């Protein structure tokens, strides 16, 4: 008899989703991924994959009637801050409206556990040095707004439909799997570390640092980088929480340690042994000077202890992964040239 618990993972082909799926499988869960592959990759999915969209209510109904789903981990959504400012409709539709389709389908089928991918962007401009979960939630872009709206929806669904949930507010997701099998592979590269590594590998000439006049010790922004494998582990801990308790919970997932952009560049030069030319550019709109979490709540309540989130491990695992990606890109270009 198969008494394995099956977890439906939306967005399981993406960066954090694929690492979480791998860990779920290693922990003995059954996993079903639903992903529209708009930014994820089928090759990153180590479990069964259904290619489909959360806008498709018929598909959702079918999934919940055909499979015995124990809980849902909901990663699927749009997540580029700058894009959200230019195209708010896309964000409200994907992150709120399509998310509601998922909630309605799961509650109709009697599935009452959800882990939700939220973000530090729900806080907006930090009002204090480290941000705990009670910090005011005043998002400054549609991305953060849509994630906060969904957190609130979860609270009302808890009351009305007995839905238990854990919202995990990620700080800066980074790094790659130490076994080299998974990593960040976005079509649109906006994140700092992948860009730094592109410059190290000469795919890009120079790294623009957005602002060196922030009130931080070297003038560049400070961020709390958390390794994707530690993020994946936080989802397992969150699932465990919902096995023993019902309710509506919210946690920061971060280390509580901040690094400046300049520190990241210096560490990357040391690890890659490559020169990384920089130039200072104007501040990017919507960037808070410092975003550092107070992670006390997840540590004490869920026993979260980051294992991989020191800057060296983050950059070296990311470098190993990106070197593979760069090689793949090179081979693609070479075969295009050969076939001309
Ligand atoms: N940066 C540069 N140059 C670049 C890219 C980034 O100087 O080429 C700087 C940014 O200005 C920022 C820092 O590096 O100060 C980190 O930028 P990222 O784009 O890597 O990450 P963000 O902090 O902007 O945002 C990330 C996620 C969001 C999430 C947020 C929460 O992309 O989804 O973390 O902490 F909301």
Automatic annotation (TrEMBL):
It comes from the Bacteria. It is an enzyme of class 5 (isomerase). It catalyses: UDP-alpha-D-glucose = UDP-alpha-D-galactose. Keywords: Carbohydrate metabolism, Isomerase, NAD. Pathway: Carbohydrate metabolism; galactose metabolism. Residues 7-254 form the NAD-dependent epimerase/dehydratase domain. Its cofactor is NAD(+). SUPFAM superfamilies: NAD(P)-binding Rossmann-fold domains. Homodimer. Belongs to the NAD(P)-dependent epimerase/dehydratase family. This is UDP-glucose 4-epimerase. It comes from Candidatus Doudnabacteria bacterium RIFCSPHIGHO2_12_FULL_48_16. The lineage of its organism: Bacteria, Candidatus Doudnaibacteriota.
């Amino acid at each position: 008899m198969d008494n394995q618990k099956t977890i439906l993972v939306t967005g399981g082909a993406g960066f954090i989703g694929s690492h979480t799926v791998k860990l779920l499988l290693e922990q003995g869960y059954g996993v079903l991924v639903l992903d529209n592959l708009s930014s994820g990759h089928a090759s990153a999915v180590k479990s069964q994959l259904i290619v489909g969209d959360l806008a498709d209510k018929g598909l959702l109904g079918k999934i919940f009637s055909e499979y015995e789903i124990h809980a849902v981990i909901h990663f699927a959504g749009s997540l580029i801050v700058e894009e959200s400012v230019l195209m708010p409709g896309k964000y409200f539709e994907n992150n709120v409206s399509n998310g509601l389709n998922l909630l309605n389908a799961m509650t109709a089928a009697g599935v009452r556990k959800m882990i939700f991918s939220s973000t530090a962007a729900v806080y907006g401009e930090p009002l204090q040095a480290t941000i705990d979960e009670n910090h005011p939630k005043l998002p400054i872009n549609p991305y953060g707004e849509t994630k906060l709206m969904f957190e609130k929806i979860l609270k009302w669904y808890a009351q009305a439909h007995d839905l238990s949930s854990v919202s995990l507010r990620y700080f800066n997701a980074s790094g790659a799997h130490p076994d080299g099998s998974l990593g960040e592979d976005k079509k649109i590269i906006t994140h700092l570390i992948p860009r730094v590594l592109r410059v190290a590998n000469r795919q890009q000439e120079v790294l623009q640092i957005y602002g060196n006049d922030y009130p931080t010790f070297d003038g560049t922004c400070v961020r709390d980088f958390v390794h994707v494998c530690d993020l994946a582990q936080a989802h397992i801990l969150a699932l465990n929480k919902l096995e023993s308790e019902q309710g509506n919970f919210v946690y920061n997932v971060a280390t509580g340690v901040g690094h400046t952009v300049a520190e990241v560049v210096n560490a990357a030069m040391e690890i890659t042994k490559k020169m990384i030319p920089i130039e200072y550019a104007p501040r990017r709109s919507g960037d808070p000077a410092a975003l550092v979490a107070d992670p006390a709540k997840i540590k004490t309540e869920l026993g979260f202890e980051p294992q991989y989130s020191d800057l060296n491990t983050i950059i070296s695992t990311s470098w190993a992964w990106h070197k593979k990606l760069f090689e793949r890109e090179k081979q693609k270009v070479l075969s295009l040239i050969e076939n001309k």
